[in-house]
């Protein structure tokens, strides 16, 4: 059995929230909540904390095993159905993140390289990482994520001269409703941390670990969106495809460091690839739980290939990815709140005779 | 169309070349699932090559859930 520490679990949680959300949803949050967008992740965080509490309570009833195993051992068929549903959900996330990264690289770094070539390269790396197991993934997270957080922490210092604090005001100009709507959109990404108890046992993933991980992720996302507001302004930032990249492009330290974004992207890319690796690992882990005797490690390549083709099939272009964000909170709510609530009431160990 | 078939065949041949030695030692169920996923992957790839306007699950999902979309609720 693979072992990871609580600290690693916390970083995994923070990474799962932070890595993909950076390029997926900030523009939409700024469009919905305008200058109050910095509050949206906090609203989502409060809601997801409830989901983590539910899952932690369920996990505490099955200390030695993860929730996939608990479901399958407790309810033979219904449990398998639920695991299969979660596996399809995670598979969709793999396809979405894969397409998002490929589009990003295609738009910003390798404009003349065919999208399919970029996707194949990303899948190749993701498959190799995911086959290494959760220990390898956790070590990669430990290596790159703190570095990425450090870069985000020094951004206010590098961008200080561009700040326009008046962009924050007036607070709640459009009412609290817009902030809540933004929070609803953000829930779909922040709630991905609720997947952790499905491959980590309660020994590793406790409520405290989840809340710390979520707190770190939400803090850095809030910091970035706040920087977007004071540097670019909510109206301009909401019109960019990737406002965070435009934010980093504002950094001009000296004449020779005018493309600081390349350096930051080179730290972010391994982090997002590790995140997709986690999702692929959870997907294969789910398939293994549903079909006993299956080797999760060996099917990783095949699942990766299906995810590659599905990432082209599911989404026509990068605009489609953005459109899905508007309805995705409904699906995320089912998997992060409704099913955990049902598990809270029904998933209990067999009573001892 | 033929380009799509060639690409699919090339990728599958490459995957099998790299994985076959390990895959041979695996259980029958693992091998079956592995090959069926390769088959599904190839079918999707060819479907995308044949169809000009393929049916996309995300578009379908968007249409089904559109009454609950934040854009329509505002």
From TrEMBL, chain A:
Protein name, as recorded: Spore germination protein
Gene Ontology annotations for the cellular component aspect, listed alphabetically: membrane
Species of origin: Tumebacillus permanentifrigoris
Keywords: Germination, Membrane, Transmembrane, Transmembrane helix, Transport
Record family assignment: Belongs to the amino acid-polyamine-organocation (APC) superfamily. Spore germination protein (SGP) (TC 2.A.3.9) family.
One Gene Ontology term from the biological process aspect of the record: spore germination
Source domain of life: Bacteria
Transmembrane recorded as keyword: yes
Bilayer topology: Multi-pass membrane protein
The keyword Transmembrane is annotated on this UniProt entry: yes
InterPro entries, per database record: Spore_GerAB
Pfam families listed in its UniProt record: Spore_permease
TM ranges: 12-32, 38-56, 77-94, 114-131, 143-159, 179-199, 211-233, 262-284, 296-315, 327-347
Localization terms from the record: Membrane
From TrEMBL, chain B:
UniProt key word Membrane: yes
Keywords: Membrane, Transmembrane, Transmembrane helix
Superkingdom, taxonomy of origin: Bacteria
Transmembrane regions listed in the UniProt entry: 6-23, 32-50
Name of the protein this chain belongs to: Uncharacterized protein
